[in-house]
Structure formats: structure tokens, C-alpha cells
Design goal:
Blueprint lengths: L4 H12 L19 H15 L3 E2 L6 E4 L6 E6 L2 E6 L2 H12 L12 E2 L2 E6 L4 E5 L1 H10 L27 H7 L17 H17 L4 E4 L7 E7 L10 E8 L2 E9 L7 H13 L1
Antiparallel strand pairs: 1-2, 2-3, 3-4, 5-6, 6-7, 7-8, 9-10, 10-11
Helix pairs in contact: 4-6
């Protein structure tokens, strides 16, 4: 970082007086500083609070105000935001309220955010989201554009274990630069050829399904549905079970997760109850 031209004279004066350790204190946060995002979040938090918004307990970057047709939701991602409401007039008033304090750029209806493409069908009242562009970048990164697609991400019955990790230094060097996805990620520390083959199969599955979208149906009742399941002793290395859960809204998933349980379940029933407990948290 370079100091403004006018400050240099003050530093020269300080040095002449024998004050070598001179620093400058910023009165306002600047871009590229580590604390800039935090300072901005505190600033926009105070302004949204003054407009009647309250942060969500589940996500402190989601703010809500009002009920029914007057309800408005503001989602923040650093200095970008989405504003949602049933009433366009409410959205316009919120934009105007934010514009009173900050210079904003209105990009219109959201079409692309954080790698997610958003598509609307106002007649059918549906909203679809996809990651086609991001998926294609992954396929290109691994040079799988012209291969035969896979119908499934993993072969049925495939069990990956730490025993498949490379044992020699040559094998480790061969696998050092190869990244992985989801189920394969726990072997990142010392991944083997079998893990790599499984990862490439996932990429080829993405090639087959890159056009698939999640579609929310606005004609359905907005009722939350929860599903959970467990695979008892699914990890062959330490016999931990696997949790699976999914929350559905308007006919499509909004939350989904698959994780290893923290303790070893003594029965399939115990594993199922632990998965259910994780789902309802």
C-alpha cells in the first residue's frame, strides 16, 4: 500500500524529529483490507436495522421484514444483494431506502448469482436453478468433454477405503495434483488411483446431467417436508455410519446433506435415529 502524496511530507518531518516508527491509522476501511468485509457488514447491518429489517437466526446474512404480501427478504453476499417480495412496490421502496445511504447499481431481475443460473416461468409460476456453466467448467478442467457420459456417479457396491491409498512415494507423487469431489474428499490427504477413477466417473456423470435443474413449483403449497436415512457402518475404515437428509419445499430440495456420524452406532436403528436427529436440528 502506498501513502497519498500529501502524507509523505509529514513523514519526512517526523523522521527529521527522530520519530522513526510512524504509522498511519485508517479512518475508513478500504477495499482489499482483511477487515473491509467485516466493516461493510456492520455498516449495512445498522442501516437495514434502521429500515425495520431483522437478521435471520439461521443465517445472519439474510434479513427479513413484514408479513404476508408485505414481507420482504434481503440476502447479502459482501456488497451484492438479492431482494425478494411478492409486491414489486415493496422491492422498489427497499431499493430506495438503501440508495439513500449507499450508491447502488440495479441489475434487474436476478439471473445469475454465485455460479447459479436462475430461470423463471411466470405463467407456470415456476423457478428453476442450475449450475450448467460451472459444471461445464469442471468437465473442461478434467478434459472430459468428448468422453462417453456415465448414467450413475458411482458403480453400485463400490466401497472406497484407505487401503486403496498409494503406499509408495512414486504412487503418492503421481496422485499429488489430482482433486476430487463429495464422497471422495475424505481421501484427499493420500488419494489413490482407485479414488481418482471414481472421481473421474463423477465428472462423466456431470457430463450426462449438466442440463438438469432444480425446479420449484409456485402452485404447490409451501409446506416443508423432511427426509432422513442412514447407512449403518458405511465407513469400512472405522465403521461409522452415514447420515443422509433432505428438506423439500414447493416440490424440490432446498437443503441436502450427507455426513459421517461422529460416533459409532451399535445398530441400524440407532443409526437411523441419529440421522433423524441431525435432520430436525
Amino acid at each position: 500500500m502506498e501513502l497519498p502524496e500529501g502524507i509523505m511530507g509529514l513523514l519526512e518531518l517526523a523522521e527529521a524529529e527522530g520519530e522513526d516508527d510512524v504509522v498511519c491509522m485508517l479512518l475508513q476501511s478500504l477495499y482489499e483490507l482483511k477487515q473491509a468485509s467485516r466493516v461493510w457488514n456492520e455498516t449495512i447491518f445498522k442501516h437495514l436495522k434502521s429500515m425495520g429489517f431483522e437478521p435471520s437466526d439461521a443465517d445472519r446474512c439474510v434479513y427479513m421484514r413484514g408479513e404476508g404480501d408485505d414481507e420482504c427478504i434481503v440476502w447479502l453476499n459482501v456488497d451484492g444483494m438479492l431482494i425478494a417480495s411478492r409486491d414489486k412496490a415493496v422491492i422498489a421502496s427497499v431499493k430506495a431506502g438503501i440508495a439513500k445511504k449507499f450508491r447502488i447499481k440495479d441489475l434487474g431481475r436476478a439471473r445469475f448469482i454465485l455460479g447459479i443460473e436462475i430461470d423463471y416461468d411466470m405463467e407456470r409460476r415456476t423457478l428453476g436453478i442450475s449450475q450448467k456453466a460451472y459444471t461445464e467448467s469442471i468437465i473442461k478442467k478434467f478434459a472430459q468433454e468428448n468422453v462417453k457420459p456415465c448414467l450413475t456417479p458411482l458403480e453400485p457396491g463400490v466401497k472406497l477405503t484407505k487401503a486403496d491409498e498409494p503406499q509408495t512415494e512414486d504412487d503418492k507423487a503421481k496422485m499429488k495434483s489430482k482433486p476430487y469431489f463429495a464422497k471422495l474428499s475424505r481421501f484427499l490427504e493420500n488419494a489413490g488411483e482407485k479414488h481418482w477413477d471414481a472421481g473421474i466417473k463423477v465428472v462423466r456423470y456431470l457430463l450426462k446431467t449438466k442440463d438438469v435443474r432444480i425446479v420449484y413449483d409456485g402452485l404447490l403449497v409451501a409446506q416443508l417436508e423432511a427426509y432422513s436415512d442412514a447407512v449403518w457402518a458405511g465407513n469400512r475404515d472405522d465403521r461409522r455410519s452415514v447420515n443422509g437428509m433432505m428438506l423439500m419445499l414447493c416440490g424440490a430440495p432446498v437443503v441436502w446433506r450427507s455426513t459421517f456420524q461422529k460416533i459409532v452406532a451399535l445398530s441400524s436403528t440407532e443409526a437411523e435415529y441419529m440421522a433423524l436427529s441431525d435432520c430436525v436440528k
